[in-house]
Amino acid sequence: MIRLAVIGTNWITDQFIEAALLTGSYRLSGVYSRNTESAKQFSEKYVSPEIFTDLDALAQSALIDAVYIASPNSFHAPQAEQLLKAGKHVICEKPLASNYQLAKQLYQTARDNNVILFEAFMTPHLPNFTVLKQELNQIGALRKATISYCQFSSRYPKYLNGENPNTFNPEFSNGSIMDIGYYCVGAAIALFGEPISIKAQAHLLDSGVDGNGSAIFQYSGFDVVINHSKTSDSYLPSEFQGEEAALQVEMISLCNRVEKITRGPTKQDVSVEQVPNRMFYEAKAFAKQVEENTMDEHDIERSLIVSKVLTEIRKQTGVVFPTDAVPTDV
């Protein structure tokens, strides 16, 4: 049984805990928050986990085997680095780090300390994502793909009213491409690998981060168009166009439904049933790696390519984070 601690006391942490417990491989043993009252209130929902308000105490605790990190983006790398060096396994919410150099450094730290580092990007672990990969081989030569995730942020009205929430604050390594856009980039890389070339554009807010944007990834024989936004909604599925048929995916992050459309047109639902809490699958994959004490090299390769591509997109669109200027060991 993996003794799990969590960093973060928000809805996504609750969702991950539920998924982790559902696998039967974890016991919630610790809750960390800089605010004692927040930690206490959050922990009351569970069976007597230890409360931590000092990260060093968590890192050194003999009661904890692994830590789930769901803090703001800019805290991911430094918190993960400290925990990995202390011998803790880490599952860290995407994006793993603010930039490519930091991501590379984290994986090296994990290797140096013989522990598991796992980026909590649920999409590649979903059964319907496996269906999508299989069906891509059944639609003829792929010619075009559009991967879209646009969702009006509940924090955007606050930003428009003069506040500066984490969601739109470069101090926290945030913005559309680092949040909702990650799913689009991550799905493309998981399916097709590193693109030959990238051309990106974005509409920047006055805070310095992107509110929405797009990118074109060029591959051999086809291209992938990425659309992402936290300032508008879209109700269109992602689409993969082959010479013989097309595939449409409802909500690429969750892969709720995969449909195959042939000329006629004939539409076929090729989806399989998934556990309602989609984080179940990543929790299960992380547990397997911890139990075997072996990181999945394909996961690492995908994670690093995604980080590299996100860093390039930000370079092209002019989104700069304070952490970009922080020296690394790499």
Describe the structure.
Residues 138-243 form the GFO/IDH/MocA-like oxidoreductase domain. It holds the Pfam family GFO_IDH_MocA_C3. This is Gfo/Idh/MocA family oxidoreductase. The chain has helices spanning 11-23, 36-43, 55-60, 73-85, 100-112, 127-135, 156-160, 180-192, 280-292, 297-317, and strands spanning 2-7, 26-32, 50-52, 66-69, 89-93, 117-120, 142-150, 197-204, 210-219, 222-229, 238-242, 245-250, 257-262, 266-269. It has 330 residues and is an alpha/beta fold. It has two domains: 2-119 and 290-296, Rossmann fold; 124-269, Dihydrodipicolinate Reductase, domain 2 (2-Layer Sandwich), CATH 3.30.360. The strands form two sheets. An eight-stranded mixed sheet has the order 8-9-10-7-11-12-13-14, with helices on one face. Helix 1 (11-23) packs across helix 9 (280-292), helix 5 (100-112) packs antiparallel against helix 10 (297-317) and helix 8 (180-192) packs across helix 10. The protein is globular. 48% of the residues are buried.
